[in-house]
Amino acid sequence: MEQDDVELLRAYQGDGDESAFTRLVERHCGWIFAAARRRLGDDHLADDATQAVFVVLSTKASQLVGSKHRSLSAWLFHVMHYACARVRRSQQRQAAHEGLAESTRVRNISDGGTQDGALLILMEDSIAELPVEQREMIVRRFYQRESFAEIGAVLNITAEAARKRVDRALMTVKTLMVRDGVDVIPDMFLAGLSPSASTSAPAGKAAIRQKRIDSIAKGTVVMVEQAKACEYPVVSAEFFVKDVEANLEFFEKLGFRRRYVETADAMGRVPRASLVGGVGRIWLRRAAESDGTRPLPGVTLYFWVEGGTDGLLATSKENCR
User: Fold this and answer.
1) Considering the domain boundaries, does residue 216 fall inside one?
2) Has residue 249 got a pLDDT over 80?
3) What is the DSSP letter of 142?
4) Which domain covers residue 266, as residue numbers?
5) What's the number of domains the chain is made of?
6) What is the mean pLDDT of residues 228-247?
7) pTM of the model
């Protein structure tokens, strides 16, 4: 893991420095969102996957600081890979309730709608299988767009040694893909991927990127704070609604208190918000309109029990007495 990342993670985990976490989001949000966007084919789904990655980072901060992980980038790629897979499965399950046509549409989005999209997913599945050291080479070179000299400087090796390590990692990726029946040239394919947003991006795009970073950083901190503050058992419900703001007011009248509200979009509509009350937590998400008049139906329930498996067993025994 890069020393700067370690220091920022330690400042956040040990000192509660939220600005340190925001700097981590700024550093890695661009390439994670770009990768998730390519896999999922949708900005909102990519936002969800990116948010999930940083929630995991926040909750695992103490373990990462105390571990021997040298590359945060490689670890984040692995989390992004599974977060995208989970988002895609969730969308496919939701689409299954709406009919075969919608399921086909989601499948096409998930696969990028092209042969290249399917190859990308297969290639990133292969990258996720790489040892950490090789995965770091791929992520640094092709996702974070670092030069061989930059990679070498961080790893304390020469630029030529960095190039050789990248080549070996690419060869491993190709071997894994050939195993799955696909023979492509990984470096040429990866080099064609759109880079993440940069500081040289047009003002409009830079503003959108900064808005995304702020939303992810604040949203992550809020969600983690909620999880830490709750006593078990905790019930969280996510509602797909047409008007988030109106539903916020409704639940406030029922005694829930507003906890987190995302910035309104260009149309002035709030994409997502949350409320808490007692041991309950409610997430409100503005749903896409399937027929132009009504939101997609769906309520997702989650249950948390403090203490993991042991806590769940203890709670079950207590309730059975």
Assistant:
1) no
2) yes
3) I
4) 230-319
5) 2
6) 70
7) 0.64
